């Protein structure tokens, strides 16, 4: 401090006896000395003194000396020492930190305000960027720190100024090759701030060979076992790739994905260092940017194929099954595996064959589901497992069918041990409400866009307890819905039912046939004391029963349900209940991203796929429950036509049976007529023979007897012929009636089709 005072005396001159200059006076004199001194040494000493005072008297230095310091960067550009002091002073003035000296004086940090003043003159930023070309440590390092301070306060404005500055980004990229680690490391932090949220800068940095340089730094630092610099490199890589298709394609085409695979080696079972866990977490985030659901589908598919071909998916699976992995790293690994196989059939098949090193060996998917339904596991991990299972089933009809097969009666006896289906169905009966929700949502994903699985699950039977008769899954879900008290469990069951009923008339018929199902849903929608989401989802499920109703259940046909809703609830109130769901905060959150996330258990309410379903079918339900007048006429007419057609079908069937019976009788009579005709002919022949014999031998009595038999046979034949005529008349009548009914049915069908269209 004495040295500092002596230095000030040499710069300012000795004060008058009995006077002690204030800090503000001292700063003002120093600024004046910088402005007026003709000697470089005097200006350098004044800048050194301003640097020393800039922490304690930041406000005074910034308010009175900003322009002077900026001019000094130009005036003494060739003197690196003076430039270094000037940059240090500016760093202190613009710093986002609050210095201890300021706290002692009770002044607030004003770095943001001075940054705004500094960058109003764009040439100031250009000057600082030019200082990066100087190799001297005491110039280059404060220039890096000054840019970092500006970015901390006014990131967007500084990003634009760097973009407009000639070769501004290139000058920053050159810092990564600096042999001095302090400068290189601070340059990494600067680039992380600079590239955040600016696609143009991200592209320029990427095409300045950023990925090559970053992988070189990571290798020199020891890979994932390295220090925090490795994490910084990975964070910069993450910034360059996140939501940037151009850089993602560049990364893929440059074969950088293959360089990630060797880094994913399992850690030591003895324990993970905290920094290794942080590095691994950052690496997994980089990987996920390439296969994020929001990316273009074609680019994601290409990256997924490379990840499988390069062995990266296999390494991820090994890490997943390794022991001793920290919980946060394991959670991120599960999410990474999920997105690497999401919607990719080959990767889904690969993962379905991964076996956990357990005794007995079990599929990795089953082991993960065991964690999901275990209430003792961390919430983040359970959410990640649900996401992984959802991604496994995403556009995977084979996987959905296999899940259903594990629950069907023919296979449950053949499959021994724990399966994914039995775990999820068992979770429906868990006392833990979150396990109920997870199980319902997971099961619902086996039904998404898969009519076959919906019908298969209708055959599934569950035994609530040993010795009790089996109950079909859908009625069992309805029974659980009526018994459940906690909203989270009820929301899970309602979302499962909604996925099941959508586009599946058979499932709708099963629900409507279940006793008290419609009454319960109606009562929930009417109950104003119910949770808003529970009422809304109950209304949506009831609406699906109308929209996909094929009138198979006579007592709850489409028109009957519409009338019930209108009478008991009111059409407008009913539609408001459904609309309330889309206005809820939980809906907005779940609809943004397919990955379920939650800070607390209570945050898990709605599933992403359910939100998509609701968005797609909300208008369909509205039109079904509140049709336009012409649609009402159409529905009524269609229902009447269905009844008429059904009646005429029954008449046609009855007439066909009668026609067949009369035809058989006619054929039998024709056979009898033919037989009598043969007998008559035979008797007539015998009569002729006997007449000739009578003339010769006097057999008149025998002839008379034969004549009587012939007359009787002829009379019988006449009777049969009359009966055949009657049968022919009946046949003609039935044929005409059938023809008329057929024409009438054709006309009815034609009219109904015309009305529908």
Automatic annotation (TrEMBL):
Keywords: Coiled coil, Cytoplasm, Golgi apparatus, Membrane, Repeat. Residues 638-751 form a coiled coil. Its main location: cytoplasm. It holds the Pfam family Uso1_p115_C. It is a peripheral membrane protein. One of its GO terms (cellular component) is Golgi stack. Residues 346-625 form the Vesicle tethering protein Uso1/P115-like head domain. Residues 1-25 are annotated as: Disordered. It is found in: Cytoplasm; Endomembrane system; Golgi apparatus. One of its GO terms (biological process) is intracellular protein transport. InterPro entries: ARM-like, ARM-type_fold, P115_Arm_rpt, Uso1_p115_C, Vesicle_P115, Vesicle_Uso1_P115_head. Residues 650-747 form the Uso1/p115-like vesicle tethering protein C-terminal domain. PANTHER family: GENERAL VESICULAR TRANSPORT FACTOR P115 (PTHR10013:SF0). This is General vesicular transport factor p115. It comes from Cloeon dipterum.
């Amino acid at each position: 401090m004495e040295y500092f005072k002596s230095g000030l005396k040499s710069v300012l001159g000795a004060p008058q006896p009995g006077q002690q200059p204030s800090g503000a006076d001292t700063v003002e004199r120093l600024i004046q000395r910088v402005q007026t001194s003709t000697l470089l040494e005097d200006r350098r000493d004044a800048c050194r003194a301003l640097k020393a005072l800039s922490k304690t008297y930041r406000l005074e230095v910034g308010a009175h000396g900003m322009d002077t310091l900026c001019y000094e960067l130009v005036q003494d550009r060739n003197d690196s020492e003076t430039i270094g002091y000037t940059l240090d002073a500016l760093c202190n003035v613009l710093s986002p930190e609050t210095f201890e000296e300021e706290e002692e004086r009770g002044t607030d940090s004003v770095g943001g305000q001075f940054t705004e003043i500094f960058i109003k003159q764009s040439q100031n930023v250009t000057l600082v960027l030019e200082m990066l070309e100087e190799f001297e440590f005491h110039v280059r390092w404060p220039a890096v720190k000054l840019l970092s301070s500006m970015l901390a306060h006014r990131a967007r404005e500084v990003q634009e100024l760097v973009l407009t500055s000639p070769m501004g980004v290139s000058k920053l990229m050159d810092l990564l090759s600096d042999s001095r680690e302090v400068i290189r490391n601070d340059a990494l932090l600067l680039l992380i701030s600079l590239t955040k949220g600016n696609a143009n800068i991200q592209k320029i940095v990427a095409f300045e060979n950023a990925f090559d340089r970053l992988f070189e730094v990571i290798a020199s630092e020891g890979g994932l076992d390295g220090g925090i610099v490795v994490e910084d490199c990975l964070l910069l890589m993450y910034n360059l790739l996140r939501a940037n298709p151009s850089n993602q394609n560049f990364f893929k085409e440059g074969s950088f994905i293959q360089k990630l695979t060797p880094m994913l080696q399992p850690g030591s079972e003895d324990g993970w260092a905290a920094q290794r866990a942080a590095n691994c977490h950052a690496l997994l985030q980089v990987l996920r940017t390439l296969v994020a659901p929001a990316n273009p589908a074609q680019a994601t598919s290409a990256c997924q194929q490379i990840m499988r071909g390069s062995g990266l998916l296999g390494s991820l699976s090994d890490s997943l099954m390794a022991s001793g992995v920290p919980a946060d790293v394991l959670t991120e690994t599960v999410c990474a595996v999920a997105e690497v196989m999401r919607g990719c059939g080959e990767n889904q098949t690969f993962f379905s064959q991964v076996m956990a090193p357990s005794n007995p060996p079990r599929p990795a998917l089953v082991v993960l589901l065991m964690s999901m339904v275990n209430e003792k596991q961390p919430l983040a991990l359970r959410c990640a497992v649900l996401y992984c299972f959802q991604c496994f089933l995403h556009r995977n009809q084979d996987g959905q069918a296999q899940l259903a097969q594990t629950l069907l009666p023919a296979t449950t006896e053949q499959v021994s041990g724990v399966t994914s289906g039995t775990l999820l169905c068992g979770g429906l009966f868990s006392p833990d409400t979150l396990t109920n929700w997870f199980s319902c949502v997971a099961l619902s994903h086996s039904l998404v866009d898969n009519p076959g699985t919906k019908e298969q699950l209708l055959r599934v039977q569950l035994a609530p307890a040993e010795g009790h008769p089996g109950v079909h899954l859908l009625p069992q879900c309805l029974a659980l819905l009526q018994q459940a008290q906690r909203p989270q469990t009820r929301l899970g069951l309602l979302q499962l039912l909604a996925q099941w009923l959508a586009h599946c008339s058979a499932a709708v018929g099963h629900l409507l046939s279940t006793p008290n199902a419609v009454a319960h849903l109606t009562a929930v929608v009417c109950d104003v004391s119910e949770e808003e989401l529970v009422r809304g989802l109950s209304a949506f499920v009831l609406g699906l029963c109308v929209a996909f109703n094929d009138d198979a259940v006579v007592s709850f046909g489409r028109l009957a349900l519409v009338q019930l809703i209108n009478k008991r609830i009111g059409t407008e109130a009913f539609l408001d209940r459904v609309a309330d769901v889309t206005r809820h905060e939980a809906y907005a959150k779940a609809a943004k991203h397919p990955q379920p996330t939650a800070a607390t258990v209570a945050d898990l309410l709605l599933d992403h796929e359910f939100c998509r379903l609701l968005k797609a079918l909300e208008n369909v339900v509205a039109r079904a429950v509140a049709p336009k007048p012409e649609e009402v006429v159409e529905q009524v007419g269609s229902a009447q036509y269905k009844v008429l057609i059904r009646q005429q079908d029954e008449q046609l069937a009855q007439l066909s049976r009668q026609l067949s019976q009369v035809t058989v009788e006619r054929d039998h009579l024709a056979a009898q007529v033919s037989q009598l005709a043969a007998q008559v002919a035979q008797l007539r022949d015998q009569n002729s023979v006997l007449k000739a014999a009578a003339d010769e031998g006097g057999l008149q009595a025998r002839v008379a007897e034969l004549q009587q038999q012939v007359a009787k046979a002829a009379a019988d034949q006449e009777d049969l012929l009359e009966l055949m005529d009657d049968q022919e008349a009946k046949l003609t009548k039935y044929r005409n009636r059938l023809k008329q009914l057929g024409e009438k049915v054709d006309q009815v069908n034609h009219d109904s089709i015309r009305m529908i269209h």
